[in-house]
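Your task:
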Amino acid sequence: MTQANSIAHAADAPYFSPPSISDFFPPELLFAGTPFAITRITLVQLLATALIVALILLGTRRMRVVPGRLQSVMELGFGFIREQIAYQVLGEKDGKRFLPLLTAMFFTIMALNLTGVIPFLNIPGTSVAGAPLVFALTAYVAFVYAGIRRHGVGHFLKNSLVPSGVPKALIPIIAVVELISVFIARPVSLFLRLLLNMIVGHLMLVLFFSATNFFFFSFNWLTPLAAGTLTLGLAFTLFEVFVALLQAYVFTILTAVYIQLAVAEEH
């Protein structure tokens, strides 16, 4: 093979394009340059939200004693959140008060997470900071509101910052630690847990399927490797479905736990 042919063959060889952080900063599609700019991820978020709202409305529009399939699924989901999260953590009285918030939070996070494994969408709506930040701030406002509503501002702050039984000499130190733990670490941990899990999951899926494409269309001796990366990609897709559901559950139950701690008499 001549040098010219070798260069031409190298130029025609498939190029492996690994996933990068640029996947989460797609170009603006509509209203570019304005605060209302819409990207591919924004469209995914809007579509997922509209779909979950439509499913809930359809499933609860005509409730029957003998439920149909969609109504059965909705009742199963609502019942799970009510019994396993709201009532179990908050008790029946407070659980009823915060059940709409917890239900909306669970279903919305779940829908946005699952877009990462849906063909032609292929990116989680919670893999950019905006959505996890909104959910974390909502949880933050909810537990602060619940505490102030139950105890008043002064008693809520005292209950949150100064646990019972702390020696007076240690109160300033403990108060600072509790301030960071309750009012900073809680929302930040909710935000980062959801965001980073979805980012990593997307990058892993793109890596496996990009490698499959590269190996399959590469030189013949690399083609068998495509079967391995494809198998890993499909297995990780199932794992991502599990993670999407798990993260929705963890976020929602932690929100309920923080509300319960806020309304409790003493920590």
Summary: Helices lie at 3-12, 40-61, 69-114, 130-151, 153-161, 171-217, 224-263. Residues 13-263 form one domain.
